[in-house]
Specification:
Layout: H1 2-13, E1 17-18, E2 50-63, H2 76-84, E3 92-101, E4 104-110, E5 113-130, H3 132-140, E6 150-155, E7 159-179, E8 183-213, E9 219-222, E10 225-233, H4 242-247, E11 252-265, E12 270-285, E13 289-300, E14 308-310, H5 319-328, E15 332-334, E16 343-344, E17 348-358, E18 361-370, E19 381-382, E20 385-393, E21 397-400, E22 403-406, E23 410-413, E24 415-419, E25 422-426, H6 429-434, E26 440-451
Parallel strand pairs: 1-19
Antiparallel strand pairs: 2-3, 2-4, 2-26, 3-5, 4-5, 5-7, 6-8, 7-8, 8-9, 8-10, 8-11, 9-14, 10-13, 11-12, 12-16, 12-17, 13-15, 17-18, 18-20, 20-21, 20-22, 21-24, 22-23, 24-25, 25-26
C-alpha cells in the first residue's frame, strides 16, 4: 500500500490544473484589484480611488473518488488503499491548485478609467482519467480483485499526471465605454508577462492495453498500443532551478479580456443587476526543456520478443532506469522531440451576474467553461463549474454562501465573509462538515486596503 500511495501522490502532486479562484469575492462590489482574476472590466467599477492587495491566497484540493471530510482524515490512507485495489473501471481525477496574489494596486485615475499592476504566482497539479485497476497492475505487478487473470483498457482520452508552476506580472486597464442614468458598459484587458517555474507531465494517449497474469502470478502486457510522453523542464529534477528559471527572464505572454454591463438604480447610483463575460489566460508558456528530459514514444508490444512485456522486467530503481529498461524491450519507438514546445495557459470563458434582491441582499452566479482541448497533453487543464452565490453586502461587511456544481468534485457548499480589509472564504466548508460525500477542500484569504472614493 505504501509503495502505491507514495508513487501515485508523488506523480500527482509533482493533469495540470487551473482552479476556480476566489469564488464569491471576485464578483463582490468590493473586489477591487481582485476582480481582475475574473474580469478586468470590473476595475472601473471599484469603490475605492486606490485599491491595494497586500496578500491573497487560494488553495484547493478536489477529486471524484475519495471523501474529504474531518472524519475521513484519519482513514485517508486506508481509503486510498481500497481505491487503488478496487476493480472499479471509473476513471479517477484529482486536482491541487495554489494561487497567490502578491502586492498589487489598482487606481481610478479618471471617472471612466482605471489601471492596475499585479503580481501573481500559480501552481496547478493533479491526475486525469486514471484507471485504478490499470495503475495497480503497473505499480504493483498485480491484477486487481475482480480481474483474476486479465484486464483490458481501451481509452482514447488523455490519461495524465502533471504539475506546472509559473509567476506573472500584469498590467491592466478598464474603461467605461458608455454611461447614462440607467446603464453602464465597460471593457477591460490584462496584459501579462509570464515567468515559467517548473513543469512535469507523464501521459498516455490512445491507450489500448491488455494485462494478463500467468500461472506463476507474473503480470505481462500483450497486444497493446499507446502514445507515451514523459516530459519535464530544467534538470533531472524539475523542482531544481525553479528560482533561476523565473529570474532568467520572461518566457511567455498572456492576455485576459472582458466586458461588463450594469443596469443602474438612478436614485442610488448602485446597480440593480450586472452581468459580465471574459476570456482569461490566453497565451502560452515556454519552459526550459532539454532533449534528454523529453521522452516521447509510440508503444506497440508486437516489437517485443514474443510480443510480450513482463512488468517485472521494466521496473527500475528510478525513472531513468525504468525508461532504459522499457526501451530495451523493443516495444517502443522514439518520436521526434521539440525543445521549443510551448505549454498553453488554462484558457477559460467566464460568465457571471449579480442582482439586488432587497436592500443589502444580493444573489449572483459565476460560470466557467474550459476553452482548451481536454485531451491536449500540452495544455494546462481547467475544469468547468457553475456557482450560485447569495450574499449580504454592506460597505464594511459582507457574507456569502457559494453553491458550486463542479465537473470533478460534484456539488459543494461553502461560506465566506469580508470584514473591512480582510476576507476569508471556502467553496466547500459547509459540505465538508455536513456531508459524508464531500470531495473537495479549499480556502482563500487575504488582506486588502481601499483608499478614497472612486466616483
Amino acid at each position: 500500500m505504501k509503495f502505491s500511495l507514495t508513487i501515485f501522490m508523488a506523480i500527482g502532486f509533482v493533469v495540470v490544473y487551473g482552479q476556480n479562484n476566489y469564488v464569491g469575492l471576485s464578483t463582490s462590489q468590493s473586489a477591487g484589484v481582485m476582480s481582475l482574476t475574473l474580469n478586468p472590466a470590473e476595475l472601473v467599477n471599484m469603490k475605492s480611488k486606490v485599491d491595494i492587495n497586500l496578500f491573497s491566497s487560494d488553495f484547493q484540493i478536489s477529486n471524484n473518488a475519495l471523501n474529504l471530510t474531518p472524519s475521513s482524515i484519519g482513514s485517508f490512507s486506508d481509503d486510498f488503499d481500497s481505491l487503488i485495489r478496487s476493480a472499479s473501471a471509473n476513471p479517477v481525477d484529482f486536482r491541487v491548485g495554489i494561487d497567490i496574489m502578491g502586492p498589487s494596486i489598482a487606481v481610478s485615475i479618471l471617472p471612466k478609467l482605471s489601471v492596475a499592476l499585479h503580481s501573481r504566482a500559480r501552481v496547478g497539479s493533479g491526475a486525469q482519467n486514471i484507471d485504478v485497476a490499470f495503475a495497480n497492475g503497473i505499480l504493483n505487478n498485480s491484477i486487481n480483485n475482480g480481474f483474476s487473470s486479465s484486464y483490458s483498457i481501451n481509452n482514447s482520452n488523455l490519461i495524465s499526471t502533471a504539475v506546472a508552476g509559473w509567476a506573472e506580472i500584469g498590467v491592466s486597464g478598464a474603461y467605461e465605454v458608455y454611461r447614462s442614468k440607467k446603464h453602464s458598459l465597460s471593457a477591460g484587458a490584462v496584459f501579462k508577462l509570464l515567468l515559467p517555474g517548473f513543469y512535469a507531465n507523464t501521459y498516455l494517449n490512445n491507450l489500448n492495453v491488455n494485462l494478463y497474469k500467468n500461472s506463476t502470478g507474473d503480470v505481462y502486457i500483450q497486444n497493446s498500443t499507446a502514445n507515451v510522453g514523459v516530459i519535464y523542464s530544467g534538470s533531472n529534477d524539475p523542482l531544481n532551478g525553479v528560482w533561476e528559471n523565473m529570474i532568467g527572464g520572461i518566457n511567455g505572454l498572456g492576455l485576459d479580456i472582458g466586458g461588463s454591463y450594469s443596469y443602474m438604480d438612478s436614485s442610488t447610483d448602485k446597480y440593480i443587476f450586472k452581468i459580465g463575460a471574459s476570456v482569461t489566460d490566453i497565451g502560452t508558456l515556454a519552459y526550459p526543456f532539454e532533449s534528454k528530459n523529453m521522452r516521447l514514444y509510440n508503444m506497440n508490444t508486437e516489437g517485443a520478443p514474443g510480443g510480450i512485456v513482463y512488468l517485472k522486467d521494466i521496473k527500475g530503481k528510478d525513472l531513468d532506469d525504468a525508461i532504459q529498461k522499457i526501451e530495451a524491450t523493443g516495444a517502443v519507438t522514439a518520436l521526434p522531440k521539440d525543445t521549443n514546445m510551448k505549454i498553453s495557459l488554462p484558457t477559460a470563458f467566464n460568465l457571471y451576474g449579480d442582482a439586488r434582491i432587497w436592500k443589502f441582499i444580493y444573489c449572483g452566479f459565476q460560470y466557467r467553461a474550459r476553452m482548451n482541448n481536454a485531451n491536449d497533453p500540452n495544455a494546462i487543464r481547467i475544469d468547468n463549474y457553475l456557482s450560485i452565490i447569495p450574499r449580504v453586502y454592506t460597505k464594511l461587511f459582507e457574507a456569502y454562501i457559494p453553491l458550486t456544481f463542479g465537473e470533478i468534485q460534484g456539488t459543494t457548499v461553502g461560506a465566506g465573509f469580508r470584514f473591512g480589509p480582510f476576507f476569508l472564504g471556502s467553496n466547500s466548508i459547509l459540505s465538508a462538515v455536513t456531508s459524508s460525500q464531500n470531495k473537495a477542500i479549499d480556502f482563500n484569504f487575504g488582506l486588502r486596503v481601499g483608499i478614497g472614493k472612486s466616483k
